[in-house]
């Protein structure tokens, strides 16, 4: 029932994640943070089993930082995504699989390019211009396909996500009122204004 949304453009990647923490039919929290800082220029949106998400995201982040300490430079987003996929695939074939789905967004300071990587709990992996996870994504792929452009500005990409979240609030039976949004570019990672039901339903 959780939802991740992501777009990659020429100079940045932007990721939105719902903030609902639910157990069975009970909503525990509407302010859960599902976006994790992996390095100075990489962030990961992650959904799945509650314990697995935090543990796996922190495991990846700490190993990438360890690599930087040992070698003196950070992994590129592409290398980090491949390492993440390999780790997930290895655990899938062990007695301790992680049931998590991810969107990893980053900016490569060497090539000056951004990237968005789709990874699911089965170890599927693909670099994509836009992607979703969860039921909410069923209503968003058409919107992203219609409006995504490689030369978009941050404001334009944010507006596409706003259209997606509005459609989720309108059509999805599950209540996902709050979405946290982060953009990753050459300046690092920064939060944008959250997309909330209260804000989107307010008269313009």
From TrEMBL:
This is Proteasome subunit beta. GO terms for biological process: proteasomal protein catabolic process. It is found in: Cytoplasm; Nucleus. InterPro entries: Ntn_hydrolases_N (IPR029055), Proteasome_beta2 (IPR035206), Proteasome_bsu_CS (IPR016050), Proteasome_sua/b (IPR001353), Proteasome_suB-type (IPR023333). It comes from Frankliniella occidentalis (Western flower thrips). The keyword Nucleus applies. Component of the proteasome, a multicatalytic proteinase complex which is characterized by its ability to cleave peptides with Arg, Phe, Tyr, Leu, and Glu adjacent to the leaving group at neutral or slightly basic pH. The proteasome has an ATP-dependent proteolytic activity. The gene is LOC113206116. The 26S proteasome consists of a 20S proteasome core and two 19S regulatory subunits. The 20S proteasome core is composed of 28 subunits that are arranged in four stacked rings, resulting in a barrel-shaped structure. The two end rings are each formed by seven alpha subunits, and the two central rings are each formed by seven beta subunits. The catalytic chamber with the active sites is on the inside of the barrel. The 26S proteasome consists of a 20S proteasome core and two 19S regulatory subunits. The 20S proteasome core is a barrel-shaped complex made of 28 subunits that are arranged in four stacked rings. The two outer rings are each formed by seven alpha subunits, and the two inner rings are formed by seven beta subunits. The proteolytic activity is exerted by three beta-subunits PSMB5, PSMB6 and PSMB7. GO terms for cellular component: cytoplasm; nucleus; proteasome core complex. Belongs to the peptidase T1B family. Coiled coil: none annotated. Keywords: Cytoplasm, Nucleus, Proteasome. Its main location: cytoplasm. It comes from the Eukaryota. Gene3D superfamilies: Glutamine Phosphoribosylpyrophosphate, subunit 1, domain 1.
